[in-house]
Amino acid sequence: MNIRIGNGYDIHRLVPDRPLILGGVKIPHHLGLLGHSDADALTHAIMDAMLGALSLGDIGHYFPPSDPKWSGANSLLLLQQVDELIQAKGWQVGNIDSVIIAEQPKMKPYLGTMQEKLANTLKIDNDQVGIKATTNEKLGPVGRQEGIAVYTVVLLVKS
Ligand SMILES: [Zn+2]
């Protein structure tokens, strides 16, 4: 098989006094995402999808929240490490498709910059990184603005 597919999911709580960072982009908002690292749910979901495609486990295994080393970590640097791991195993990212689910703030103005940052980190073209955003129609915890969730699929191709 020359292709592998992986899916990733992540959710982080929205709390005061934390930055809101998605895809490496700091988004102005009165709430931010709670987590051990920078809590970048988009980048985390992508890493989990890349690892999952090769049955390599999940990011908790490589960057355990119990390790103070990852406190406040820039998730793009973690993504770079995951990319190096899959490349060492002979694979590269074919394309990524992600959906951010957030009631607030509006994501659309930031999607292009997220795409650019993720593509630069993975050294692939911008059009290999799809990012969409939707609301949860005010339903459930995401709809009540208690958190932001992300779903991702990643296709890996043999290099
Ligand atoms: Zn996460």
Automatic annotation (TrEMBL):
Give residues annotated as binding a divalent metal cation. D10, H12, H44
**Swiss-Prot/TrEMBL catalytic activity:** 4-CDP-2-C-methyl-D-erythritol 2-phosphate = 2-C-methyl-D-erythritol 2,4-cyclic diphosphate + CMP
Transition state stabilizer, annotated site positions: H36, T135
Q: Which domain of life is it from?
A: Bacteria
One Pfam family from the record: YgbB
Domain 2-C-methyl-D-erythritol 2,4-cyclodiphosphate synthase residues, every copy: 3-156
Instruction: Report TM segments.
Output: none
Which GO BP terms sit in this record? isopentenyl diphosphate biosynthetic process, methylerythritol 4-phosphate pathway; terpenoid biosynthetic process
Looking up SUPFAM superfamilies in the UniProt record yields:
IpsF-like
HAMAP family from the UniProt entry: IspF
Oligomer and partners: Homotrimer.
Protein name (database record)? 2-C-methyl-D-erythritol 2,4-cyclodiphosphate synthase
Organism from which the protein derives: Crocosphaera chwakensis CCY0110
